[in-house]
Amino acid sequence: MSIHSDDIDSPQFITLLNSIIEIARAKAFAPDELASKTRDFILSRVSHYANHLGHSPLEILTAMEKKRPVTVPDYYNSEVFPRLDLGGVFVLRDLTHYKQIVGVNGFRCPRCGEVSLLDPYQCHEWIGKRKCSWSARSFFGTFGKGLRLVIRDVFLLEPIVYDIFMPIALEPLFENGALIPGATFPE
Length: 187
Ligand SMILES: [Zn+2]
Hints:
The protein is of the alpha+beta class and about 190 residues long. Helix content is about 35%, strand content about 15%. It has five helices and ten strands, in the order H-H-H-H-E-H-E-E-E-E-E-E-E-E-E. It has helices at about 10-25, 30-55, 55-65, 70-75, 95-100; strands at about 90, 105-110, 115, 125, 130, 145-150, 160-165, 165, 175, 180. The strands form four sheets. A three-stranded mixed β-sheet has the order 1-6-7. A three-stranded antiparallel β-sheet has the order 3-2-8, with no helix packed on it. Strands 4-5 form a two-stranded antiparallel sheet. Helix 1 (about 10-25) packs parallel to helix 3. The two termini are about 20 Å apart. Zinc ion (ZN) binds near residues 109, 111, 123 and 134. Zinc ion binds next to loops.
């Protein structure tokens, strides 16, 4: 694993950063304020992600910008890219690690409490005569009762902090969406 910490000073990185800032400025009411806020966030958070994920800052920012589905200010912020060292987001190595921690017992729907066996994002259970259909991708997400994670080896293809229904296998380790003090997240 090599970390190219110097990449944040490289001409390629600075060119990409400036192009993102120009996009932000173009539609802003307070362009200078938004430009400096965006610059500060990207510089600090991209370095942070680079250190935690073992990709270079240029690789991380390139991946993020390529998959940006919303405006610059709606994307480059702590809601979309939270810090990875505060305990609320777990860094997994790869899809094998993901499968290990998720297990085979499914996921808890945060709305109806039933188990979604295969789908970590959407509930297909019935509450009486109505289908629950709750989606982790909806505005309220998992109500803070889900599991937030990044997968290091796929991050450059999918630069996403996933918020999924809590895997049943991990429920003993969590309370109200937070790791119980003293519990260890499975390596
Ligand atoms: Zn449900």
